[in-house]
Amino acid sequence: MGQEGLTFKQKEKAILVSxxxxxxxxxxxxxxxxxxxSLIMLTGVFQSISEILAIFFAYIAxxxxxxxxxxxxxxxxxxMEGFSSLLMALVIVIxxxxxxxxxxxxLLKPEKLAGIGVLIGIVxxxxxxxxxxxxxxxxxxxxxxAFSPIVEGQLxxxxxKFAMDFGxxxxxxxxxxxxxxxxxxxxDPIGALLLSGVLFHSAYTLFSTSxxxxxxxxxxxxxxxxxxxxxxxxxxxxxxxxxxxxxxxxGDVFIELYLEFDDDLPMEKVMEHIKxxxxxxxxxxxxxxxxxxxxxxxxxxx
Length: 302
Hints:
Blueprint: H1 8-34, H2 39-66, H3 76-108, H4 116-145, H5 149-177, H6 187-214, H7 221-233, E1 240-249, E2 252-260, H8 267-284, E3 288-294
Parallel strand pairs: 2-3
Antiparallel strand pairs: 1-2
Helix pairs in contact: 1-2, 1-4, 2-3, 2-5, 3-5, 3-6, 4-5, 5-6, 7-8
C-alpha cells in the first residue's frame, strides 16, 4: 500500500455529484408514486428524500473538513466524517421503518398496481439501476485508494440504492405483467419486505464503522501486525517497546509508539532510528501520522 490517498477536493466533488444525482432522481420517483398505486414507489420517495438529506449533510461535513484543523479542534474535524456517516446510517434506519410499515400495511390490504405511474416507475428505476451501479463502482474505487468514513457511507448507500431500484424494477414489472391474477397484489408489499433486509444490512455495517471511528477504536489487526513487523525488522535499533496506541480520525490514522533506547546511544542516532522506523510504518499504512516517544516505562492512562 502506498501513502497517497484521497484529497478533500476529490471527496467533495464525488459527494456533490451524488447530491445532484439524488435530487434529479427524486423528481421522477415522486411523479411515479403520485400516478401509481405502488407501495414500493411510495416508500422509494421517502427513501430518496432521506438520502438527499444525508448526502447534503455529508457534503457540508466534507467542506468543513477540507478547511483543515485549527487551534481549538486539532483532531475533531476528522470525526465529522464519522458523524456524517452515522447520520447516513440513521437515515437508512428511518427508510427501513417506512418500508417495513408500508409492507405490513400492504400485506394486510393488498391492492392492484395500476396507472401510468407504474410504467414511469419501471423506466426511471431502470435508469436508477445503471446510475447507482456506476456510483457504487466509483465509490468502491475511491474506497480502495484510502479509507474514509464518508466514502464508506456513500459506498454502502449506493449499494443499497442499487438493490432497491433493481428490486423495485422487478416488483413493478411482475406486478404489471401478472396483474390479472389475485396473488399478484401481494408482489408489491412482499418485494418491499424483502428489500428491507438490504437496508438493515447497510445500516448495521455503516453504524458499526461509524462508532468505531468516533470511539477511537484501535486499528485493524492487519495494520497492527504490519506495525509489529516493522518493529521486528528494527529490533536492534531500540531497547524495549512499552506501548502501542492507534486510532482513526476521519480518513487519517494516528500511531503512537513508546520506545526505550539505550542510554549510551547519542540523541542524533536515536532520532535517526525514529525517522527510519516512522518512514517504514508510513510505507505500509496510508494516511498515517507516526509519533515515536522515547520512554523508559509504559505510559499511564489518564
